[in-house]
Amino acid sequence: MPKKYIPYGKQWIDDEDIKAVVEVLKSDYLTTGPKIEEFEEKFAAYVGAKYAVAVSNGTAALHAACFAAGIGPGDEVITTPLTFAASANCVLYQGGKPVFADIDPETYNISVEEIKKKITNKTAAVIPVHFTGQPCDMEEIYEIARENNLIVIEDAAHALGATYKGEKIGNCRFSDMTVFSFHPVKHITTGEGGMITTNNKELYDKLKLFRTHGITKEPDKYLLKTDEPWYHEQQMLGYNYRMTDIQAALGIRQLKKADGFLKRRREIAEIYNQELPRIEWIKLPFQKDDRESSWHLYVIQVDEEKLGKSRKDVFNYLRSKGIGVQVHYIPVYWHPYYQELGYGKGLCKVAESIYKLIISLPIYPAMNSEDIIYILDELYYIS
Ligand SMILES: *Cc1c(COP(=O)(O)O)cnc(C)c1O
Questions:
Q1: Could you tell which of 80, 134, 183, 196 is best to mutate to test the pocket of ligand 1, judged by most ligand atoms within 8 Å of the CB?
Q2: Stated pTM of the model
Q3: How much distance in Å is there from the Cα of 382 to the middle of ligand 1?
């Protein structure tokens, strides 16, 4: 075991967070109490959306968004292969078919031209993923979506606080819904947790029903008229995807620190941006200048020829030094489950070739300068 261990990402919990959680534990509501609405309101205000719906995790948020979008059997939904499996699995949950469009070789985000090529008369939606926190070409994607009558669901699990053309991701200016995750490696955490934002009241109502079995307790929404005081009504098949008040209390506290976390992530990214060009086998992440990444991940590409070593050699070396590098991501359709469904290798050539060379370096607010210097030293040493 090496002395030091620096993971690629990690939460930051302070005493105030712990106090907020303990207060809920002593209160009347552990779940579906006042903290949920408060978290939703504050989150919606933070990203600039009209509505927010808190759910049990980011995957549930994606599932709920696909449900609200009306995805069903026979529908195709376009997404990127360079993402966490959940971005595509959510389509399968609804009986739809994920269709993978290749990525832009510079930003690693889904390519607008490739989306166009994949549209058929069965395409119902597109799920762009803001990979590493750099926003996708949302204006262009939204325009194609409007022309082809597609729903746009942004997977912003990496992108809390990121801005696109001066506005925060999550305000749904160029989408119907945006989905966030509060897993501990993400920008803010609730242990497990997720959120969907939207400006559309109809989608908002569907998301809320879906989160709690499809059951409503709001009399003005009942399909059957009754004066039974115990009445509540299941109107569709939903799930129990609720977030607890314990989690929401933590989320409210974490959200207060989101700007500070983001600032620190950007500082660390800036240090990497300044220092890494001195290492000639490293290709830096490319950033477009009309958007600001939230730097969930810092992904470098290894030039194996210049280095004379493989990506795997670099990976193993850094791990042996206690640097918890990771690879984001194995192309989704390379997984045996997707291969079994009939997705062939070679489907998205750019994503596959970039996947073979990338490594995610540690980046998270609690990293200190000693950690960064240690990582940089080990990277220089490889060269
Ligand atoms: C983390 C993540 C998810 C899923 O979020 P969970 O809260 O872990 O379910 C979805 N998409 C992307 C791109 C992610 O990084």
A1: 183
A2: 0.97
A3: 32
User: Could you give the C-alpha distances from 110 to 81, 252, 297, 348, in angstroms and in order?
Assistant: 8, 32, 17, 11
Over residues 275-290, the pLDDT tens digits come to 999 999 999 999 999 9
Question: Which atom, in ligand 1's list, is nearest to the CA of 192?
Answer: 7
**CA-CA distances (angstroms) from residue 374 to 55, 225, 333?**
38, 67, 35
In short, whether 59's Cβ falls inside 6 Å of ligand 1 is yes
Cα distances (Å, whole numbers) of residue 372 to 276, 308, 322, 361: 12, 25, 13, 10
What's the gap between Cα 264 and its chain centre?
19
For residue 257, how far is its CA from the centre of ligand 1 (angstroms)? 21
Domains in the chain (CATH in brackets) are: 6-256 (3.40.640.10), 258-382 (3.90.1150.10)
Task: Determine phi and psi for 154, rounding to 5 degrees.
Answer: -85, 125
